[in-house]
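On clarity, I found the account of how folds are encoded harder to follow than it need be. Since the whole study asks how a given chain folds, the encoding of that fold should be made plain. For illustration, here is how one protein appears when written out as sequence plus structure tokens:
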Amino acid sequence: MLYNAYELQRTMLSGAAAWASVGAEMLTNPALPMGYFGLGPVMASALDVFAHAASPRGKPAFDIETVTVDGTTHNVTESIVLHRPFGNLLRFDHPGLPANAPKLLIVAPMSGHYATLLRGTVARMIERCEVYITDWADAKLVPASAGRFDLDDYIDYVIGFLEHIGQGTHVLAVCQPSVPAYAATAVMAAKNNPCRPATLTMMGGPIDTREAPTSVNDVAMQQPLSWFENNVVATVPLTYPGAGRRVYPGFLQLAGFMAMNLGSHMMSHYGMFKHMVAGDGESAGATKAFYDEYRAVCDMTADFYLQTVEHVFQKHSLPKGEFVHRGEVIDLTAIRDTALLAIEGERDDISGIGQTRAALHLASHLPDSRKKYYLAKEVGHYGIFNGSKWRTRIAPVLEDWIAQHGRKPLKVVA
């Protein structure tokens, strides 16, 4: 019923948004004088803001066409190099990369947004690296015949992607995937897998949410797991290929994040409204572009979502040494040569300070020379991997770490 009610509401809002868009275009038509006098500009701007907020959004494109390196512009090639039911492996490269350019796998969050949320991350790292990224699928579009997808499968996907890319690959996990990427690294290290990461960088990840709990952590702890299963898990309607699959809908995830900072989101839309009234289309366009990406959401499987809530936020299984993959307890002390970089934002309200840094302490058999911590001053959660501070202050730290540990992992001696 929850998903069907949402679909009904979405259909109604889509129609209203279409009419609002028509009204805004009429009021701003140069041939019609009403848009230049009285309440015309105000009404046109209000209709445009409503149309933008209520319009349905599909999966965005990366649209990274070129990259400029040392003053030279190169065309960027995007390709699917490995197809899997619940997510493809994408590659970005350009002719300006040297033959020995480092290979970087960016593990995108499976948390309600598409991998394109990391567009700025990819665009910056493609300057010096051959970049791969996990392009997770919208669960409602994956047929039920493809089976389930849980934390074990997520870890297996990461391992499979690394094996496909080959030895010496560096890994960047942004937010939520820090946990499964860290687990995958330990699993590969324990088996002396030659394709284990040369470096693993975790940014704003909930490795140990007992450190500086945020409101997100509090919500996960306040209710039993059964509450989440009964109240936020829904069944995909018959109108989608994944009909019958149990999912945590993306629209609920978005609603939760919007509610956390409702005031700031309202002020952002009000600011967009004022810019449009004043004729400042460029400023209004920047806000629109952000919300076009932010409000494009997808579903995740209920199995993966519920296991994440249980083991990451409620039981803290990984830092307690109780995290299990395919029936075997994950041993973080098996990580002995993959260089670890933990990056946190000083103003992160999703993953508090110390949650990601905990990964460095848990890998107790890794030499200190292969561990590094970086606290990005005056940076929030989104700013860790997007925006000017990411491009100019954080990305260079990551590039230096990759260059410092660019050789293939050492052979682990049992």
About this structure: Residues 343 and 374 are 5 Å apart (CA to CA). Residues 15-24, 35-55, 258-281 have pLDDT under 50 and may be disordered.
